Every structure is written in C-alpha cells, then in structure tokens.
Amino acid sequence: MDRTSVAIPAIRVHAGSATFDITTLEEALAFARANPHRKGDYDGLIRRLQSAADPDDVLEAGNAFVWWAESNDLVGERGH
After folding, report:
1. In angstroms, rounded to a whole number, what is the distance separating the alpha carbons of residues 63 and 42?
2. Is 22 exposed, middle or buried (0-12, 13-18, 19+ CB in 10 A)?
C-alpha cells in the first residue's frame, strides 16, 4: 500500500506566524519534527506517523496528529 494514497483529516496549523495546510502523513511528520511541542505523547505521535502502513493505521495516525496539534494550540482551521 502506498501510504500517501490514504487521506488523513485535513488541518491548518501554525508555527509562529507561518501557517501550513496538512493533508498527508509526510506533511504531518515534517511539521511535528520541526515543531516538537511536548504536550501530549509527542514521541508516540512521531512513532505512529512513521510506522503507519495500512489504511486504518494511516487514519489513526492522522487523527493522532490532529489531537496533538489541538492539545498544543497549533490549530488554525479544520477541513482545508
């Protein structure tokens, strides 16, 4: 399975004055690595984003990223 072909919940996040639309696991992983906020299970989030292989895992990892971003007050808007 190509993990990039499975959609994750779209989310708009911010880091400082920059805003990013996250729509793939790779984007979520890159953002989380560049912005290591520790609220929530950051290390678990990184492992989940890296290891998601099947469609259910990808969706769960995407939802974990959304939860992590919300808990760290990084969310701009949902559903973009």
Report:
1. 14
2. buried
Distance CA 10, CA 3 (A): 15
SS3 content of the chain, % helix, strand, coil (to 5): 50, 20, 30
pLDDT tens readout for residues 50-59: 999 898 999 9
Q: What is the pLDDT of residues 27-76, one digit of tens each?
A: 999 999 999 988 888 999 999 999 998 989 999 999 999 999 999 999 98
pTM for this one? 0.86
For residue 76, CA distances in Å to 56, 57, 80 come to 25, 25, 10
* 40 burial via Cβ count (<10 Å: 0-12, 13-18, 19+): middle
